[in-house]
Amino acid sequence: MNARVRLLLLLLPLLATGCSAISALEDASEPLEVYELRTPQVQRAGTRRNVEVVVEEPVGSGALAVERIMIRPAPLQAQYLPGVRWADPVPVMLQTLLVRSLTEAGALGSVGRRPLGTNGDYAVLSELTDFQGESGEGVSGATIRVRLVFRIVRERNATVVATRAFSATEQSLSTDAVAIVEAFDRATTRVIADAVPWIVSHTR
């Protein structure tokens, strides 16, 4: 075997690896369809009070705190819908919806992601425990589960004022991305619509 043939044989695996890497990069660069949830419509909650509320970004596991739309085919398995994503990572998206809905309630002097001064009057902390669809063998659609555990903290003395979990379940009639997103929208609307008056009532 001459030197040229030996060199070619050595380079073939490297060339194959390079082609695989290029293929993976091309797949990763394919654009994904982007979805976002609507801001829930909430009832105005009485007279405006001069209270500043800071809504912290919800804390969630690594599987939930991403831009992808999660579907669990089994309790211990996490997959994501192909070709689609949320407009923002899920915790950021939920924080935005909470800030907007609390602002529209009209009962608080200021609502934001950060305090206007050194600190606000209250902070709304939350943990995201469910934000996924669940499908099983032989099931045509998916069950959408959304659950947030809220804690309201009085900033001046770091006291937990109240703690409560809010959850909602909605059924998607198919595993089509649009149908699943619409079910997520309904479930998230229910959770936030229930949470907003509770938050307002505990930030006095």
UniProtKB/TrEMBL annotation:
UniProt signal peptide: 1-21
Q: Could you tell me the superkingdom of the organism this chain comes from?
A: Bacteria
Native species? Kangsaoukella pontilimi
**Known InterPro entries for this protein?**
ABC_trans_aux
Keywords annotated in UniProt: Signal
Please tell me whether the keyword Signal is annotated for this protein: yes
**Lineage, top ranks:** Bacteria, Pseudomonadati, Pseudomonadota, Alphaproteobacteria, Rhodobacterales
A Pfam family it matches: ABC_trans_aux
Q: Does the keyword Nucleus apply?
A: no
Q: What is this protein called?
A: ABC-type transport auxiliary lipoprotein component domain-containing protein
Q: Outline the extent of the ABC-type transport auxiliary lipoprotein component domain.
A: 35-194
